[in-house]
Write a structure and sequence with these properties.
The structure is a single chain. The protein has 197 residues and is mainly beta. The protein folds into two domains: 14-78 and 168-195, no CATH class; 94-163, Elongation Factor Tu (Ef-tu), domain 3 (Beta Barrel), CATH 2.40.30. The chain contains one helix and 17 strands. The protein has one helix at residues 55-68, and strands at residues 14-20, 23-27, 34-38, 43-49, 74-77, 94-95, 105-109, 117-118, 123-126, 129-132, 137-138, 144-147, 162-163, 169-176, 181-182, 185-186, 190-195. The strands form six sheets. It has a five-stranded antiparallel beta sheet with strand order 1-4-17-14-5, with no helix packed on it. Strands 6-7-12 form a three-stranded antiparallel beta sheet, with no helix packed on it. A three-stranded antiparallel beta sheet has the order 10-9-13, with no helix packed on it. Strand 2 (23-27) and strand 3 form a beta hairpin. It starts with 13 loop residues before the first strand and ends with a strand.
């Protein structure tokens, strides 16, 4: 498995990042009541579409698709629509305390300014995991307990760095429409990626 670099100018005109919950739903054949089991191991899915471009850019996109070799290789992607938090939290942020596997919140320290905010939908990279903030939170003294939309896949140790500027995650290419050429330009290509777990 090789990590393939994105081509220069890979700037989607549309981007969708969703968290696919790993769950099982069982329904009673008699009363219709349901039982849902959360199996934790959620997976991020990212779909994006590139705008039409010059012929040379189309060739670079074709080379990228070829280098991905289907699902063999991976690339580092981030939420292109929100590369940085909408809130004011910045600085050298770390985790404060150990976060157990399956947890739905993380405790952070080192937030600057000390009363900085994270807003629902902000993305954070912690270790090899990507998290979305579930609810607005304001730090106190540079620390905050942040509720996340998914669950922690593997335990996080205290002092782990938190990436707030373009937090990336490794993705596999699940499907692409490829590049279509028209006179003097290449049409925009569309991509579907799945988190490489």
């Amino acid at each position: 498995m090789t990590t393939v670099a994105l081509p220069a100018g890979f700037m989607p005109r549309s981007c969708t990042l969703t968290l696919r919950a790993n769950q099982r739903v069982y329904a009673s054949p008699f009363g219709g009541s349901e039982q849902v089991i959360d199996l934790l191991n959620d997976r991020w899915m990212l779909s994006c579409e590139l705008p039409p471009s010059r012929m040379a850019s189309g060739a670079a996109i074709e080379a990228f698709i070829g280098a991905m070799r289907g699902q063999v290789n991976v690339c580092a992607l981030y939420h292109f629509a929100r590369p940085a938090p909408r809130g004011t939290a910045r600085g050298t942020i770390t985790t404060n305390g150990t976060t157990a596997q399956g947890a739905s919140s993380v405790v952070l320290a080192g937030i600057s300014p000390t009363g900085g905010t994270l807003l629902a939908g902000d993305m954070l990279g912690i270790g090899s995991q990507l998290f979305m903030v579930a609810a607005d939170v304001t730090a106190s003294g540079g620390a905050a307990t942040v509720t996340i939309t998914g669950r922690v896949r593997t335990a996080i140790t205290t002092g782990t760095s938190v990436v707030w500027d373009k937090p990336t995650l490794l993705f596999r290419l699940l499907q692409t429409a490829g590049v279509t050429y028209n006179p003097r330009f290449a049409s925009g290509a569309s991509f579907d990626f799945g988190e490489a777990i």
